[in-house]
Q: What sequence folds into this?
């Protein structure tokens, strides 16, 4: 997926999955994720974030997942206070665009990305 992205592919679902994988490079240690260190992961995450439009995006799912990433690990994205604020705005914008939010079932069957965010949806509901 990373190679496809670098070669100009902008498939939406692949981009969301790649956003998640790039984030996981610093969100969890390699002994948990099984991923090798990628010093370009932060740059890739930011490129995908910008591609979707950042916090001004029109894609509710992107806002939801990027906002969750920022809630869970704001200091990994930069200034903790700034990213905590961005996370709140992204969540609010996501709910404005999709008032019912995202159920666990919405994410199921979508590889690692789907498994992770289906779990997060269950935690938020439960």
A:
């Amino acid at each position: 997926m990373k190679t496809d992205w670098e070669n100009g592919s902008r498939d939406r679902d692949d981009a969301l999955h790649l956003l998640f994988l790039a984030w996981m490079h610093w969100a969890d240690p390699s002994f948990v994720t099984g991923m090798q260190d990628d010093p370009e992961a932060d740059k890739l995450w930011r490129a995908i974030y910008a591609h979707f439009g950042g916090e001004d995006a029109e894609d509710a799912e992107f806002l939801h997942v990027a906002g969750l990433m920022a809630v869970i690990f704001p200091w990994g994205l930069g200034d903790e206070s700034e990213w905590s604020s961005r996370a709140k705005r992204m969540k609010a914008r996501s709910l404005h665009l999709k008032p019912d939010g995202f159920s666990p079932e919405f994410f199921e069957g979508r590889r690692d990305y789907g498994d992770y965010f289906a779990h997060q949806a269950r935690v938020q509901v439960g």
